[in-house]
Write a structure and sequence with these properties.
Layout: H1 2-33, H2 40-47, H3 51-57, H4 61-77, H5 87-104, H6 106-117, H7 127-146, H8 155-171, H9 173-180, H10 191-205
Length: 209
């Protein structure tokens, strides 16, 4: 009985290890080549598996791609506290969370961006929930404006500006590094300083002291 439980535990751990390797390989391939340019053979080789071994764990690249695409969507959903009445606190936390994701999981962010650039055909299930989430954010911002907690701004423009400024550090990491390289070789962004500066920039633009 104990041996059977141990065997099941080992099998589960082995499966988790293999799936982690598959996910890491797929993220790298999809972020570099998109869905169309990625083959299951390439994923298998990067994960250290044969193609038949890969298909033992996944049905196909499309299912795997959708799963990884939804990871970043889910990660973004909980970053903005639309129920809070403290705009400085909410916007600061939102910018920090977005920057952390850009630094910690840049390839996931690039998968989403590449999908949008390719027409977003695999995001049909994502848009309705995203529109609702955006409406909640807009309502919160407009509520702060109505209460005199910040100056009038177009809430959609504000949100999209934050997305552009934060996601840039994932999608254009090479450009960031190269533009600093001539005068600061080996330079890497100071994450906390970057968050502080972006937050101060946004809050000033919103008239929040």
């Amino acid at each position: 009985m104990v041996q059977a439980a141990s065997t099941r535990g080992n099998a589960r751990e082995n499966r988790e290890r293999v799936m982690a390797a598959i996910h890491a390989a797929a993220i790298a391939e999809f972020s570099e080549n998109g869905l169309k340019g990625t083959s299951t053979q390439a994923i298998a080789e990067r994960a250290g598996l044969t193609k038949p071994q890969l298909h033992y764990y996944i049905r196909g690249k499309e299912e795997l791609y959708e799963e990884l695409l939804m990871q970043v969507v889910e990660a973004w959903k909980g970053m903005f506290d639309a129920k809070s009445t403290e705009p400085a606190k909410v916007l600061g936390a939102y910018i920090r969370s977005k920057i952390n994701l850009a630094f910690d999981k840049p390839e996931i962010s690039r998968i989403f961006t590449r999908e949008v650039l390719d027409g977003g055909r695999n995001l049909e299930a994502f848009w309705p929930d995203s529109r609702k989430s955006t409406r909640d954010k807009v309502a919160a911002i407009n509520g702060w404006i109505a209460r005199g907690q910040m100056q009038p701004v177009d809430a959609h423009v504000l949100l999209m500006a934050i997305w552009a400024m934060t996601q840039f550090y994932a999608d254009s990491a090479l450009q960031v590094q190269q533009l600093r390289k001539p005068t600061q070789p080996g330079w890497t962004p100071d994450r906390d300083k970057l968050v502080d500066e972006l937050t101060a920039f946004v809050l000033r633009g919103c008239g929040i002291t």
